[in-house]
Write a structure and sequence with these properties.
Blueprint (H helix, E strand, L loop, with lengths): L1 H41 L3 E7 L4 E5 L10 E5 L10 H12 L5 E9 L6 E14 L4 E11 L1 H19 L3 E5 L5 E4 L1 H6 L4 H4 L8 E4 L5 H8 L1 E9 L5 E12 L5 E10 L1 H11 L13 H18 L3 E9 L1 H8 L1 H17 L6 E6 L2 E6 L5 H16 L2 E3 L2 E3 L2 E9 L6 H17 L5 E4 L1 H20 L5 E10 L4 E13 L3 E3 L1 H11 L2 H23 L4 E5 L2 H4 L4 H12 L6 E6 H6 L1 H14 L2 E7 L6 H6 L4 E4 L11 H16 L3 E5 L4 H9 L4 E3 L7 E2 H8 L4
Parallel strand pairs: 18-19, 21-23, 23-24, 24-25, 25-26, 26-27, 27-28
Antiparallel strand pairs: 1-2, 1-6, 2-3, 4-5, 5-6, 7-8, 7-12, 9-10, 10-11, 11-12, 13-15, 13-18, 14-15, 16-17, 20-21, 20-28, 20-29, 21-22
Helix pairs in contact: 9-10, 13-14, 15-17
Length: 707
């Protein structure tokens, strides 16, 4: 009997051990499976979650580090760090899942990452593990969550590129490796009078009717990798459309072609304009200027006359920079309006003895008579540049372009009219190579002038350290009480070998070579040193005005430098006036608004210099934080005789009065000019009538009669 019991016990013990081994084996497999799952999830920015109704808590397994450094997170649904904009949507989806209205949970939302404290995107997927059918609710759920921040960002970039492709103003086609059209954008469909379905799969060569430049499909696509030129396309409706086309190749790492990109714009209107221009005889019908044929005849006559009278001529060749962008983007109507306005501005810079011609397209040619003085030519060229650089307001839009100018000189040599034009044209391309928006000479004079400027530029680098600069001050007098209202600081350069160099020469060089900011800051510092001493000595609140260049004004640390200079020199902010031209303000509206507000907060006075000579907007003038308008001397030279100048000056003074601004008349030289501005309400005067710009020591003697 005892043997039987022992045998049964042994069998039971053996069976129990087998069960234990089997359980351990299964548990080991489960652990390995769980580990493999977590390893897989770790590489995919994913991990597991589980929720129980019994404690209303969700457990987030974080072994992959998706949510930060903590290995697990356990919190209530309401404690999830959701983005405020996603809370309602998340709660609605969760309640639907919890109430068994949906079988699965699938939601994307933003959460605040515990480590970098930025919003990440998370996607939660899951199913109900256990459901209370009678209560109609989930009592146990589990699933997986994934950080999809990168995926969301990539989708956003893809959508942005797709929108840019679809909404660009130029037609675009993407071809596959067989040169068949794969995708077209809206502009392409508009130009070709087609729908996307009409072009999809169509061989590109079937679109090309003819091209001005040789266009070989195999050479362009398989060898050149890039081609640009003029073509005609067959439209779907059977018509033909001239286009300007660029073809480029997309290649892989092995330099194999994957796709081809064709970008084109409709140039139908431009072609019509070109045909119309060919029919013109003497005058350009758009601008009213002389056309090419008339200019060529007139140039020949002037050269013959110049030979008889030993006269020097200058020919300026102008090409409008970025005009093609305006023309292609906004149409020829906008381009024509811009050309008319540009022609008017150019004509306004010239006297009647000079001849302006629209040479073709966006090119103009100017013949200057009796052009012996290089400085005069430079002055006119700078005026032309400034006029074209001012904003063009056309049909509710604002455009900024520039012009490149080439200059050739005729001085009695054997140059033909064609050679003179060709040399100016070559110089114009040289100007474009130098960065556009400038003028260059083609002549021995150009080389000499360029060498002189290069020498001055090299000397400018040493001028501050060598103490070659000096500030002259010009008084500003209040005629109401015959007291000094202020002084304007004007820089002078005593060159060691050339003597006194004109400011309009070296300031332009300083701007082109990037030294203007250092010079501006030197002037500002010296003026503040002098102003602080005068304030302590005389206890008078007259202003010291300092001109600020465009480059200096747009510097990010402009305000910081002024503030530091005031503190360093002890100059009261109320005694400093910053003079800025209206052109600078209108070109840098956002920066101007910020800097002017900061200057007002510092207590620094701001004056708009040369008011009325540049482009200005009364709407911006109303909001700009300025204190003073300075009437440019160009309106005052003939004010005692010219009614138009009188009306302009009266308007400026009345405008300043209505805006509670001070107004200063600049460049007053005669009693007649003084009487005209005073009787119109301007009482602060600057000009030779009272005093020329003078050194500091001379100014301090001059001050005694006003203080």
């Amino acid at each position: 009997m005892s043997i039987s019991l022992l045998l049964i016990g042994a069998i039971l013990l053996l069976y129990r051990q087998q069960q234990i081994n089997r359980f351990k084996h299964i548990n080991s497999k489960l652990q390995k499976s769980d580990e493999r799952l977590h390893q897989a999830l770790k590489g995919s920015d994913s991990d597991l979650w589980e929720w129980h109704d019994s404690n209303q808590l969700i457990s987030l397994d974080n072994r992959g580090g998706v949510l930060g450094a903590e290995p697990t997170f356990t919190l209530a649904i309401a404690e999830l760090p959701l983005h405020p904009a996603d809370m309602d949507r998340f709660n609605k989806t969760w309640l639907e899942f919890y109430g068994c209205q949906t079988d699965v949970l699938d939601i994307e939302y933003r959460y605040l990452h515990p480590q970098d404290r930025t919003w990440h995107w998370l996607r939660i997927n899951g199913r109900a593990v256990e459901v209370d059918s009678q209560a109609g609710k989930v009592i146990h759920a589990a699933g997986m969550y994934t950080d999809i921040t990168k995926k969301r960002a990539l989708e956003s970039e893809v959508n942005l590129l797709a929108q840019a492709f679809e909404n660009t103003s130029e037609g675009m086609l993407i071809l596959n490796v067989n040169k068949d059209i794969k995708i077209s954008n809206a502009a392409a469909n508009l130009i070709l009078a087609s729908h996307k379905a009409d072009l999809a799969g169509k061989p590109f060569i079937e679109l090309v009717a003819e091209s001005t430049e040789p266009f070989d499909m195999d050479d362009v696509f398989d060898k050149e990798r890039f081609w640009t030129g003029e073509c005609e396309f067959y439209c779907i409706d059977g018509s033909r459309c001239p286009v300007w086309m660029n073809v480029s190749t997309m290649i892989n790492d092995s330099a194999e072609s994957l796709y081809y990109v064709v970008v084109f714009s409709d140039i139908t209107e431009r072609k019509h304009s070109e045909q119309h221009l060919k029919r013109l005889a003497n005058n350009d019908t758009l601008t009213g200027l002389a056309n090419r044929s008339m200019f060529s005849r007139r140039l020949g006559q002037v050269i013959e006359a110049a030979k008889q009278h030993d006269e020097t001529l200058a020919l300026l060749f102008l090409d409008l920079d970025r005009f093609k962008h305006v023309n292609d983007s906004y149409g020829h109507g906008m381009g024509d309006a811009l050309l008319v306005e540009a022609a008017s501005r150019l004509q306004g810079c010239l006297s009647d003895e000079h001849l302006l011609c629209r040479f073709g397209g966006d090119e103009f040619v100017i013949l200057l008579r009796d052009a012996k003085d290089i400085d005069t030519i430079n002055h006119i060229a700078k005026q032309l540049l400034n006029q074209i650089e001012m904003p063009f307001k056309l049909y509710g839009r604002e455009f900024f372009i520039s012009t490149s100018i080439g200059i050739s000189i005729w001085s009695g040599d054997d140059q033909t009219p064609e050679t003179l034009i060709k040399n100016a044209d070559l110089a114009m391309y040289h100007a474009k190579e130098e960065g556009r928006g400038n003028f260059q000479y083609y002549s021995a004079e150009r080389n000499a002038e360029a060498l002189y400027h290069l020498r001055l530029e090299a000397d400018l680098h040493k001028a501050i350290a060598a103490n070659e600069f000096e500030i002259y001050y010009q008084p500003q007098v209040n005629v109401d009480n015959n007291r000094l209202a202020g002084v304007e600081a004007l820089i002078r350069w005593h060159h060691p070998s050339d003597g006194l160099v004109r400011p309009d020469v070296f300031i332009g060089i300083a701007e082109s070579c990037g030294l203007i900011v250092d010079i501006d800051r030197w002037v500002l510092t010296q003026a503040c040193i002098d102003g602080a001493r005068w304030y302590k000595e005389y206890q008078q609140d007259f202003l010291v005005s300092v001109n600020v260049s465009t480059m200096h004004f747009r510097q990010p640390d402009f305000i910081d430098f002024i503030n530091a200079t005031l503190h360093r020199t002890g100059m009261p902010a109320k005694c400093l006036s910053i003079e800025i031209t209206e052109g600078v303000l209108m070109r840098e509206i956002d920066i101007a608004t910020q800097h002017l507000l900061a200057l007002k907060q510092l207590g620094v006075d701001v004056a708009i210099d040369d008011f009325g000579t540049g482009y200005s907007s009364l709407a911006y003038l109303r909001t700009f934080k300025v204190n003073t308008l300075k009437i440019d001397r160009s309106f005052l030279i003939h004010i005692d005789q010219n009614q138009a100048d009188q009306a302009i000056v009266s308007s400026i003074i009345e405008l300043a009065r209505n805006l509670s601004l001070e107004v200063i008349a600049e460049g007053i030289e005669t009693p007649e000019q003084l009487a005209q501005v005073v009787k119109r309400g301007c009482h602060i005067i600057q000009g030779y009538y009272f005093a020329k710009p003078m050194p500091k020591a001379e100014l301090e003697q001059h001050m005694k009669q006003y203080l």
